[in-house]
Amino acid sequence: MKFFLSVLVVLFLFVNLHCGNGSANKDPKDAVSQDSIIVPVKKYDLKSSIISYTNVMKTAGMEAKSRQVLYFTDSGKLQCREIFMTNPANGKEVLTASIIAKEGYVYTYSTMTMTGTKTKSSTRFIAGTDMFQDIDKMKQMYKFVELANDTVCGKQCKVTLVTLPSGNAKITTWNEVVLSTSFFDPKTKMSADMKAFKIEENVEVPLSKFEIPADVKFVIR
Known about the structure:
Layout: H1 2-18, H2 28-38, E1 49-59, E2 62-73, E3 78-86, E4 93-102, E5 105-110, E6 115-120, H3 135-141, E7 143-152, E8 155-164, E9 167-174, E10 177-185, E11 190-201, E12 217-220
Parallel strand pairs: 6-12
Antiparallel strand pairs: 1-2, 1-11, 2-3, 3-4, 4-5, 5-6, 7-8, 8-9, 9-10, 10-11
């Protein structure tokens, strides 16, 4: 279970950093300056939302299923993604990790170890840009092909195929929000598929979802 959780978090951080500004190890001043030119400031069309996803990861003959919930309010200025996994021993679902974007930082932490990372964000998180994607930046870094539109949860979505060094990723977006992703690494035969199954629009999101637990130990990057 810990192995699959680690892979999930790595995948999320990849999309977060590489599909964002990719500047976690750069001078924050330089990152903001560059992104101010590259990344447009965007807002969601809806004030708030709660979106639930299923996730299936397969690797080395093993399969892991998880559930994710994305919360955002104030048109995306505050965002939280919670990751739940089912313990195969007892069949119970538990919250295993959270990723929160607020006040210019991204907090990623494990609820099992209460440790995580705090990364300075830049314009990709301003005014609602989805914390897990930045299509404009992806176009510059990787081979990028737009595919035919698709429907997810009754929403008409844009679909893009991105060729990455480790494989291909298909990303489906609606109003700048990622509703599904599909990744396959031909070398390791690992696949990861995430898809929204429920969208709640313009709902009241508890502000407690965006609070950082005081007992989490963060490494600043």
